[in-house]
Write a structure and sequence with these properties.
The chain has a single domain (5-123), classed as Zincin-like, CATH 3.30.2010. It contains 5 helices and 5 strands. A hairpin with a 2-residue loop joins strand 4 (83-87) and strand 5 (90-95). 35% of the residues are buried. It is 47% helix and 18% strand. The strands form 2 sheets. The protein has a 3-stranded mixed β-sheet with strand order 1-3-2, sandwiched between helices. It has a two-stranded antiparallel ribbon with strand order 4-5. It is an alpha+beta fold and 124 residues long. The N and C termini lie far apart (29 Å). The structure holds zinc ion (2 copies).
Length: 124
């Protein structure tokens, strides 16, 4: 199965300008997670927490589910726990602990092409 694409999206960036806790969404493009570039200014505990949460939404795509379900499903993919923390002005952002970070990062890299987005960003 091909990887889920992680892409920048102007709508997420506009949502983020309205509320700093808006960093990503799914359901906009097929098999893609949209993010704002500002996501990558957050510590990796938040970056991989948010991306795992979005993968949790993709697992349940088309079926009714809550934000909490997305945390649980995304966390289950990596066998980690997604909690919520504030970071500067952003409240209630998905977060994984330092102990859970390697598993979260491994799982996100297995299911998404986020590293391609990050390497393109670094070249610019
Ligand atoms: Zn989008
Ligand atoms: Zn969500």
């Amino acid at each position: 199965m091909s990887k889920i694409r992680v892409r920048y999206c102007k709508e997420v960036t506009a949502d983020h300008a309205r509320n700093p806790r808006n960093l990503a969404h799914v359901g906009h493009y097929r098999r893609a997670v949209c993010v704002t570039p500002a996501l990558f200014d957050f510590p990796p505990n938040f970056v991989y927490g948010v991306l795992l949460h979005e993968l949790g939404h993709i697992v349940k795509a088309g079926k009714p589910h809550s934000e909490r379900d997305a945390d649980q499903l995304g966390g289950a993919l990596a066998r980690v726990r997604i909690t919520r923390r504030a970071w500067h002005g952003a409240r209630w952002v998905e977060y994984v602990s330092n102990a859970d970070l390697p598993a979260a990062r491994r799982t996100v890299n297995r299911f998404t092409d986020v590293q391609q987005l990050l390497s393109r960003a670094r070249k610019r």
